[in-house]
Amino acid sequence: MKKVATIAGSDATGGGGLEADLKTFQEFGTFGFAAITSIVTLDPENGNHQLTSLDLPLIQSQIASVFAGPIDAIKTGLLPSREIIELVSEKLPNQIPLIVDPVIGGKGTQDFIKNDQVQALREKLLPQALITTPNLREAGILSELGDLTSEKQMQQAAKKIALLGAKHVVIKGGARLDSKQTLDLHYDGRNFQSYPHPVIDTPYNHGAGCTFAAAITAAVAKGYPVEAAIKIAIDFVQAAITMGEQINPYVGHVWHGAYTHAEKRLEYPNDKR
Fold it and tell me: Which of 9, 32, 119, 123 could bridge to 78 as Cys pair (CB 3.0-4.6 Å)?
């Protein structure tokens, strides 16, 4: 069994963060490990979220535990401070595929471009990444281009992010550019590949980004080439969004089991079972 690690924040409501990662890893038939960087909680009185970071020594001990044995692929998610990013970047083993989901808190773009966390992602983590999976907002921040409003601007952002060291950049367009068709864009340092697909009309899509990156990570661990990993991750998330559920009065989550439980079977190259 392939072993896959996530270093990310915990989402107490179970839809995103390392909870999404571990659920997705298992759906792909891989064994998941987790190091928690922070905990995100929800106030049941008003729906507000609060983030609490864990102490660096505790994060370091978790990372050491995760890498006590061999790992086949690594995903990073919410790393809420420069100090945590620097710690993680120093402790990552060499020669293991790294998928960076560059989770950046907040809603704006310009206000975050010079943020310490963002600069640490650019300087410390992206140079080690096989694949990075920013959404449209995160791509605008990491590329320092601000709000992206077209496919051409997505391509410009992908090129700038690739210059930071990531070998593959996958920008998740979501429904921000078009209310009827979403666009995901892959740049491998030479060529662009676009993935348009219909917008799924549902508010229950919390966790889609984490799930997408986790699906790519698990597929890479199972032996998929990058292009094939991206394609199956898109299908996996489309199914998860389609079957999304309202979880509480404030939020609805994707259903991580939708793809494999819809009477489908995931086929993996190089799977000896």
Answer: 9
Return the DSSP state at 190: S
Matching residue, tokens 């896959």: 4
Is residue 61 within 8 Å of 91, Cβ to Cβ? no
Task: Return phi, psi of residue 49, to 5°.
Answer: -100, 150
The string of DSSP codes covering 110-168 is GGGTT-HHHHHIIIIIGGG-SEE--BHHHHHHHTT--S--SHHHHHHHHHHHHTTT-SE
Q: Which residues contact 272 (CB under 8 A, 6 or more apart)?
A: none
Q: What is the pLDDT of residues 228-243, one digit of tens each?
A: 999 999 999 999 999 9
Angle, in degrees to the nearest 10, between helices 56-66 and 82-91 = 30
**What pLDDT score was predicted for residue 267?**
54
Give whole-number Cα distances, 177 to 47, 149, 196, 210, in Å.
28, 6, 11, 20
Least confident of 51-55, 63-67, 180-184: 180-184
Q: Identify the residue whose tokens are 């391509």.
A: 155
Q: How far apart are CA 68 and CA 55, in angstroms?
A: 20
Within 8 A by CB and 6+ apart from 61, the residues are none
pTM above 0.85, yes or no: yes
CA distance 128 to 126: 5
